[in-house]
Design a protein that fits this description.
The protein has about 300 residues and is mostly helical. The chain folds into two domains: about 180 residues, Topoisomerase I, Chain A, domain 4, CATH 1.10.132.60; about 90 residues. It contains nine helices and five strands; from the N terminus they run ααβαββαααββααα. A three-stranded antiparallel beta sheet has the order 1-2-3. It is globular and about 70 Å long. The N and C termini lie far apart (about 65 Å).
């Protein structure tokens, strides 16, 4: 929008469309706004397609910001719902009340929550978690396919279908980055759908494989493989300590105390949680493949 005759650059101003609505996640608003601005400035649909696919790929890989996937819905109070209602804000309020009778959200307060992966057949309301639960539990993962197919793609389709674009086909063109694990589910303790999947890349050489480390890295240069994996763990631990120091400085706590941070707007907190999960996985894999190498 141009507000004066001598204005060189236009200003994006949205009224009543999904880029300014609060009933979805921030990722939808950001992606839609970027698409609109890109189409108005470059008029190149191929660039918009590339941007959307990059954002969907980041979502699938888990490298997108967690803050952009947090719903925030208004809580209407315990009496504002039917007894059988399965509303996310109400479910979270009941969980809080079960732990602390004084921890009920205020009427009109927006309650943040995320949707995580669950066991096959689980209803959607059972997958609702508070963001703090997702950060504290390394077994929980964002339900990326739900976010893409049910939250992100529908508004994109409504906005871009007037141009004859099939946004669903853009998503289907993306390469599949996960493979089904070959372990026997009946002999494991896996309880969520995401735990049956693993990355289709070797952690050492990043080549395609059906396991976390390819057979070539296991057999040829096995000692180098362990050294590289230990180096990965060391770098992750160093980054984790650096971010922890940032949190201690921000919270003004001593080096021996914990960091009492509950801010949902702090990007460092989410990054620390991701690093902790990655380091735990890398350490376990390093020990696992070291024992396997010794048995070769």
């Amino acid at each position: 929008m141009y507000e004066s005759a001598d204005q060189a650059e236009p200003v994006y101003d949205a009224k009543g469309i999904e880029t300014v609505r609060r009933d979805s996640i921030p990722a939808v608003s950001k992606i839609l706004e970027k698409c609109f601005v890109g189409l108005f400035t470059s008029r190149d649909l191929s660039q918009t397609k590339l941007y959307v696919q990059n954002q969907l790929k980041k979502t699938l890989e888990g490298s997108a910001k967690l803050q952009d996937f947090i719903f925030s819905k208004e809580y209407r109070g315990e009496k504002g719902y039917k007894p059988t209602a399965k509303v996310p804000a109400l479910l979270i309020a009941r969980k809080r009340l079960a732990k602390d009778p004084w921890n009920e959200p205020l009427s009109g307060e927006r309650v943040p929550y995320v949707i995580v992966c669950g066991a096959p057949g689980d209803p959607l309301y059972s997958l609702v978690r508070e963001p703090q639960e997702l950060l504290a539990n390394p077994q929980l993962k964002l339900n990326t396919h739900y976010y893409i197919n049910r939250v992100i793609l529908p508004p994109l389709h409504r906005a871009l279908s007037v141009l004859g674009v099939n946004v669903q086909s853009w998503f289907e063109e993306l390469p599949k980055v996960y493979k089904i694990d070959g372990d026997d589910p009946s002999k494991s303790t896996k309880s969520t759908l995401s735990q049956y999947f693993r990355s289709a890349k070797c952690l050492v050489c990043e080549s395609g494989c059906q396991a976390n480390v390819c057979r070539k890295c296991l057999t040829a240069g096995s000692q180098a493989t362990v050294v590289i994996m230990n180096s990965i763990v060391g770098r992750q631990l160093h980054l984790e300590h650096s971010m922890e120091q940032m949190c201690r400085t921000c919270a003004k706590v001593s080096t021996s105390g914990c960091v009492p941070c509950t801010s949902l707007d702090c990007p460092v907190q989410y990054k620390r949680s991701q690093l902790q999960k990655q380091r735990t996985l890398s350490t376990a894999l390093c020990d696992k493949y070291l024992s396997r190498i010794n048995n070769y």
